[in-house]
Amino acid sequence: MKMITIIPVPAFTDNYIWMLINNGYAVAVDPGDANITINWLEHTGLKLCAVLNTHHHKDHTGGNARLRELYRIPIYGPAKDPIPTLTHSLVDGDTLTIDEIGISLRIMEIPGHTLGHIGYIGENFVLCGDTLFSAGCGRIFEGNPSMMLNSLDKLAHLPANTQVYCTHEYTLSNLRFAKHIEPENLKLRQYDMNAISLRKQNLPTLPSTIEIERNINPFLRCCIANVALAAKKLYGANPDDIISVFSALREAKNNF
Ligand code: ZN
Ligand code: FE
C-alpha cells in the first residue's frame, strides 16, 4: 500500500487546506472555502472522501455544508466546539480510521484557541489547526493561558520527528517575535533564514517538526532560562512562574 501524501492548498490570505491523499482519494482538513476545494478536486481528479475540522472558526469550517451536500461525505470534528455541519463528533482518545486513504488518526483535545479544539495525530504527523504554529501559537480566544500552555505541552511531547501541519502561514511574523525574545538562539536564526528564503520562492514553510519547534518556538520554551528572563525584562513576567511567562509572551505577541 502506498504512503499517504499531504499537500497544502492555499486559501484566503494565509490559510492552508491540508489534503491527505492516497489511492485516488483525498481528505480535506479545515476547508474554509468550498470553491477552492472543489476546483482543486476537479483539477487533480481526486475523490473527496471526508472532511476533518480542528475547531469551529469560519476560516476552517466555511466549506463544510457545500462539500457535504455535493459529495455526501462524513464531516468529522470536535464534539466540544459548536459546528452544526458535523456528521461525526470526536473526543479525546478517539481513533478515527479512514479506509479510503488507509489511515488511523488519534484525537487529542488541545483547547485554548477555542474550548473544543482538537488535533489529529497520525503515525508521524499532527494536524494541529490554530493551536501550534511554527515559531508561535494561536490566540487564546476562548480558553485561558494555563489551558493553552497545557495543550502546547501535550503537542511538545509528541515524538521529535513528528511533522507539524498548522493551518496558517504565520511563520515569518512569528519568527520576528521569536527573535525579539531569543536574539542569541542560533537554531532560531538558521531557521529564520531558511523560512525567509522559502517565502521568497512563494513556498510554504510547513510542515515543521516537533523537534524544530522545541528548539525555536518561544511558546514551547517558557521554562528555558533565557526565555523566562526575556519575559521578565521586556514584559515584567515572574520568571519562576511558567504561566506568568507564557501569558506575558502571548499578550506581547498580540501587540507586537
Ligand atoms: Zn481559528
Ligand atoms: Fe484560523
Folded structure, characterized:
The chain has 256 residues and is an alpha/beta fold. It has one domain (5-221): Metallo-beta-lactamase, Chain A. 36% of the residues lie in helices and 25% in strands. It has helices spanning 34-44, 58-61, 64-71, 145-156, 171-181, 186-200, 210-216, 225-235, 242-254; strands at residues 5-11, 15-22, 25-29, 47-52, 75-78, 88-90, 95-98, 103-109, 118-121, 125-129, 132-133, 136-137, 163-166, 208-209. It has a 6-stranded mixed beta sheet. A 6-stranded mixed beta sheet has the order 7-8-9-10-13-14. Strand 7 (95-98) and strand 8 (103-109) form a beta hairpin. The protein is globular. The N and C termini lie far apart (47 Å). Fe (iii) ion (FE) binds next to helix 2.
**Beta-strand percentage range:** 15-25%
Distance between the termini: 47 Å
List low-pLDDT spans: none
Return the structural class: alpha/beta
- At the first level of CATH, the class is Alpha Beta
- Can you give the helix content as a percent range? 25-40%
* CATH architecture assignment: 4-Layer Sandwich
User: How many strand units?
Assistant: 14
Any idea how many domains?
1
**Sheet bearing the most strands, described?**
6 strands, mixed
Q: Could you report the average pLDDT, rounded to the nearest whole number?
A: 98
Calculate Rg over CA atoms: 18 Å
Widest sheet, order of strands: 1-2-3-4-5-6
CATH fold-type name: Metallo-beta-lactamase, Chain A
Question: What's the helix count?
Answer: 9
Bound molecules: zinc ion, fe (iii) ion
Name the CATH superfamily assignment.
Ribonuclease Z/Hydroxyacylglutathione hydrolase-like
